[in-house]
Amino acid sequence: xxxxxxxxxxxxxxxxxxxxxxxxxxxxxxxxxxxxxxxxxxxxxxxxxxxxxxxxxxxxxxxxxxxxxxxxxxxxxxxxxxxxxxxxxxxxxxxxxxxxxxxxxxxxxxxxxxxxxxxxxxxxxxxxxxxxxxxxxxxxxxxxxxxxxxxxxxxxxxxxxxxxxxxxxxxxxxxxxxxxxxxxxxxxxxxxxxxxxxxxxxxxxxxxxxxxxxxxxxxxxxxxxxxxxxxxxxxxxxxxxxxxxxxxxxxxxxxxxxxxxxxxxxxxxxxxxxxxxxxxxxxxxxxxxxxxxxxxxxxxxxxxxxxxxxxxxxxxxxxxxxxxxxxxxxxxxxxxxxxxxxxxxxxxxxxxxxxxxxxxxxxxxxxxxxxxxxxxxxxxxxxxxxxxxxxxxxxxxxxxxxxxxxxxxxxxxxxxxxxxxxxxxxxxxxxxxxxxxxxxxxxxxxxxxxxxxxxxxxxxxxxxxxxxxxxxxxxxxxxxxxxxxxxxxxxxxxxxxxxxxxxxxxxxxxxxxxxxxxxxxxxxxxxxxxxxxxxxxxxxxxxxxxxxxxxxxxxxxxxxxxxxxxxxxxxxxxxxxxxxxxxxxxxxxxxxxxxxxxxxxxxxxxxxxxxxxxxxxxxxxxxxxxxxxxxxxxxxxxxxxxxxxxxxxxxxxxxxxxxxxxxxxxxxxxxxxxxxxxxxxxxxxxxxxxxxxxxxxxxxxxxxxxxxxxxxxxxxxxxxxxxxxxxxxxxxxxxxxxxxxxxxxxxxxxxxxxxxxxxxxxxxx
Length: 765
Hints:
Elements: H1 21-29, H2 35-46, H3 53-60, H4 71-84, H5 96-103, H6 110-123, H7 127-135, H8 153-161, H9 165-175, H10 188-204, H11 222-232, H12 237-257, H13 260-272, E1 277-280, E2 296-300, E3 305-309, E4 317-320, E5 329-338, E6 341-351, E7 363-367, E8 380-384, E9 387-390, E10 400-401, E11 407-408, H14 414-421, H15 424-453, E12 455-456, E13 465-466, H16 471-500, H17 506-534, H18 546-553, H19 563-575, H20 587-599, H21 607-611, H22 615-619, H23 621-648, H24 653-659, H25 661-685, H26 693-710, H27 712-717, H28 723-741, H29 744-749
Parallel strand pairs: 1-5, 2-5
Antiparallel strand pairs: 2-3, 3-9, 4-8, 5-6, 7-8, 10-11, 12-13
Helix pairs in contact: 1-4, 2-6, 5-6, 9-11, 10-12, 11-12, 11-15, 12-13, 12-15, 15-16, 15-17, 16-17, 16-25, 16-26, 16-28, 17-18, 17-19, 17-25, 19-25, 20-23, 23-24, 23-25, 23-26, 25-26, 26-28
């Protein structure tokens, strides 16, 4: 026999029961009711005045947990409500109780209204939204978010580009040509050849030799080279890295470490990519510890040759760009030995391929294979089996072997000579920091534009709203927009100082390069993850670029120096006042320095300042800068005290530093954030009034205040803010996020990401 359909409760017919129908519908439409919820509703309906026994019995049938109404019965009930209910006037906010009373033709008593309101409370719904949903009527359209003061985008872009705007514009236009466009689904080999063709075009246009002397086809302008590297990062990051390897590391090492004989023979060809080359420093077993690499370069006085050898597998050169496919000459860093005496790390030019592309004698090359990203770069491994090269192949600007077989150097100190020779690493760190900020800008441009167009959810009965209008979305993206602006000014200033090449600033620039490279690359990766999530499934699509931006720049956190190590280098420099004693880790020099440093008192904050919570104060540069400067000073002072205490107890300086590494990393981050805020404020002060100055100052306020909020626990522990001030800071960050959101599209457009390189989800409407 066919199953018998269960009987469905009839619709209550009398006028006294009609006011309760909306509550019945909402109760069941929102999901199955529990027995306890049904008992509570039944109790309130039974207690309602004016109901006849038949009405109570009819309503009772709708409140049986074992016999819930079917979908058809609920639909019938909904149609009954919509037929009987009057239309709501535009903008009217009727509660569920009001709607129920409107269904009845009889006058409503105060007791009935109170009963309906009690039922509405028991249901736990927003009555006005439930009423509109029942009637399928739209709420009054919310007005669009008001625009803030208009950002003069073209003027701001010109300001951000600075004096090298013509070069930046040239590269932006170049990147939008078909040769530099994106292609998906290519094999590793196809990607490498495509990137090589792009590199050749850059070389042909003179963009590779920008930092080389004019007699070798360049412009002798390292600032232009850094700007080119930075701007190229709007495009394929594989090209950026191969550009840096060929022209910056390989050619740069020849330029900075070599002399005229090397320049005359190699530099022009390096700048045009006629001579592809490698920078072979990193070894498998030593990573960031360059001083202890194992590759040897032993001078053979009998033949006048240098013998380059890989003594153990841990000494092979690892992850060397240009090695797997294209490179022909390598700058090999090795331990130089002359006359049985070791002179530390030096660079030697070693051929790794012949002109026909075959591997050179005594050299073994392996392909690193497919990587997480950057598959357009041919990373490889190198081994040398007693490879002989002429004595003249030693890059001899800072250390040479005379024709008589004697080692000579203009720098007596081995430590100073070592750090001078690896100065190429500083250029690499500056360049990577610049590129990381560019990629961060690209990701944020994509996410902000998408968020300003994509609609999701919204008030009941009304249109969906833009996801960028949600506070959580603003909280995720707006502080990062501000951080990208702060890092823009910080890293640009670092690049300018590096380009000047002032000897008296070299140690400070090296320390800043270490800290900013670490901070910027971490910030970029963090921002890209937020951008990916903020774009939902679209952010996961290759065509929308966020996956490749993440994959290609993940390695930024570990190459050109592991970030954790670099942050420690920054703090060592801060502790030693840019002197060499701390780097040598010698206890007798360390104790003397730290004794004086720990004795320096750090002033206490004003009790009034710790409690002040008005908006003007919280947004002021003076408050924010004082807070970040005090934090850095206190952290530096306390880590010095911790180190001194351990060393005085007999712990060696290396172990003491290792014991305080968590403290050291916090100090490094605090130092970089202080530096970035200072550079941001300088940029704002350098602007003409009205020329986007107010808009940038708002971003500066957001960056500074968010940095304080992010480390609120430390500021509270230090007594620099109170609990009420911490809450006020949180509220002020919310307000700033809302204000910056109103200009967000204009602010990211001013970064000048080439429109042709932006994916479909970031195209302007």
